[in-house]
Amino acid sequence: MNWPLFWALTLAFGLVISNLLLIKHAAKLKMPSSPKQAEGNKGNVTKQHNTTQQSPVHDQTPNSPE
Q1: What would the DSSP string read from start to end of the chain?
Q2: What local confidence, expressed as pLDDT, does residue 32 receive?
Q3: Alpha-carbon distance 11 to 16, whole Å?
Q4: 35-51 per-position pLDDT tens digit
Q5: Is the dihedral of CA 30, 32, 34, 35 positive or negative?
Q6: 14, 17, 22, 27 alpha-carbon torsion, rounded to 10°
Q7: Is a pLDDT exceeding 60 seen at residue 56?
Q8: Contacts 24+ apart (CB under 8 A), 7-16
Q9: Could you tell me if 15 and 23 are in contact, meaning their C-beta atoms sit under 8 angstroms apart?
């Protein structure tokens, strides 16, 4: 076996094993619950714009499904 093939196979197996370990680690992490997350963002909410209710500008018209 030549050395470049050995290092290529070692690198490939290393990437596969490291990705599997990363997925295993990430599966153990817990996401924050929705009500708690909403309470944390309550003070940070700024004025939000509803882009679906805005009128078209100049020659722009909304897309129609036809």
Answers
A1: --HHHHHHHHHHHHHHHHHHHHHHHHHH--PPPHHHHHHHHTTT--PPP-GGGSPPPTT-------
A2: 75
A3: 9
A4: 755 566 665 555 555 55
A5: positive
A6: 170
A7: no
A8: none
A9: no
Q: How far apart are CA 19 and CA 22, in angstroms?
A: 5
pLDDT value of position 4 = 95
- Phi, psi of 64, rounded to the nearest 5 degrees: -105, 150
Distance set, CA 28 to CA 51, 54, 56 (Å): 38, 43, 47
60: alpha, beta or left, given left = phi > 0 and alpha = psi -120 to 50?
Answer: beta
Which phi and psi angles does 5 have, rounded to 5°?
-65, -40
What is the pTM (predicted TM-score) of this model? 0.44
